Amino acid sequence: MESRWYDLDELMHEFRVIGYRTLNLGIMKINPADIIGLSQPPEQVATDPKMNALRESVATLGWSDLDPADLHLLRLPYGKYTVFTGGNCRAMLASDLELPTVSASVSLLIPNHLLKPNTAQKLAVMEQETVPKAEKSLELVTRKLQNATASPNEKRRLTEEMNLCMKLIESMKYQRNQLLTAEAYRLRLIPKERRAIKVNIRPSESS
Fold this sequence. Notes:
By secondary structure, the protein is an alpha/beta fold. It has two domains: 6-113 and 188-201, Conserved hypothetical protein from pyrococcus furiosus pfu- 392566-001, ParB domain (Alpha-Beta Complex), CATH 3.90.1530; 115-185. The chain is 49% helix and 20% strand. It has six helices and eight strands, in the order βαββααβββαβααβ. It has helices spanning 8-18, 42-46, 49-61, 88-96, 117-145, 152-186, and strands spanning 6-7, 20-30, 35-38, 63-64, 72-75, 81-86, 102-111, 200-201. Strand 5 (72-75) and strand 6 (81-86) form a beta hairpin. Helix 5 packs antiparallel against helix 6.
């Protein structure tokens, strides 16, 4: 019987060729039937000791989404999902149980060629110039601060410089997310329903 699961590397191949960026969408509710990829071979996931422990827990306590970050999914441009950095057992079991929804931490894949040229240019400047330069400055200032011979005034100045570098980095990351979010909505890559709903399905009395 042919597996319904695709390999993460197989799904990512074309996007690695053309280039892409990812955007964190946070915790969302999704339909497990839309998860088509795993980051490990399905036969390995099915026989993983963690899977047996998860099955036993669900059989006893029911399904719980108390730790949705344990299931990290990547939403592909065509609306399907693949396990990204973790959660293979949860993805497979949720599919086996045909759960209507589960909560997961979701990242969105945005192909570079779909971005507006001016947006792509702004992102490139941030990612290749502004942020690396600020991170290098932060590293240098941090090393100087660790110098025991620096005077109190020098340490105070370096601390202020360090804070400015950190604020610049955070600001650039925020602007990057804002640009990608705007593009994701323009391209209609973000699902309409983003609010996560806690799912707690308990076994029937007869089970």
